[in-house]
């Protein structure tokens, strides 16, 4: 009896072993498959989280911000908009530098505002065309010395026409004299009409550039004297020193302009007429060539990423706070967004409303 029992035990043990091993082997592919499925789920999940932020389709926007003040018709608390254009820094020296060493003032402001890391000039990357795109919502290849007016009315003309307010409620204050073109346009029925006040260059068009500290002083004076509802301020030095091929001066100019920006933000916050009713937008007209294109940071004007990629930081009562978004928007979208904030229409603007930045 003993040997057969032993044989039986052995057979049972072998069968059990095989069964367990088979079970393990059967389970292994399932586990792998499950792991693969899980990984796919994670990937899908991650993609679905990222996707609404990276696209601009209205459906995605709704998914991202399902009950905004904008969608509920509660916008907008903004009564004034000030746009500051830092002329021609590369993104790699502003927000693309993650130390923020050149823009500490804007980094402070960022905590109360919204930053776009995927914002571009998709037209001509020169000063007049860039400012034209910001102000009229159209990309035009303008002659770049101030000889040519934009074709279409700007936010300033549209605002003044819509509100009937006096000219001094809309201002263009610029270091570059050629930016006086932003005060008028070629469109029939608009030329010479509804023009904002301009304070550009030494003494207006074709008078030459003036120093940024003069523009800073003039901008403060205009704010205190007139409290404009709509204003654009241009600081030229990052562009000027870039063209001079003086890297350290170019960097210093970005830092100095950043200081002006922070000072203007602080001024707004300390002003009872402006506080909590004013939107500040900080952007660029264009960037500069990436290092491996032409003469690199010295010049600009083509379609390279360095020339196209620009900054957009905004702070105001209707915008998200302390957040960076990767939603792709572009330069011509600013005018449409300003029009929404101040409740007027851009009759000829091609831009779209930047819905994702709203509360
Ligand atoms: Zn420029
Ligand atoms: Zn370029």
From TrEMBL:
InterPro entries: Alkaline_phosphatase_core_sf, Metalloenzyme. Residues 150-344 form the Metalloenzyme domain. GO terms for molecular function: hydrolase activity; metal ion binding. SUPFAM superfamilies: Alkaline phosphatase-like. PANTHER family: BIS(5'-ADENOSYL)-TRIPHOSPHATASE, ECTONUCLEOTIDE PYROPHOSPHATASE/PHOSPHODIESTERASE. This is Alkaline phosphatase family protein.
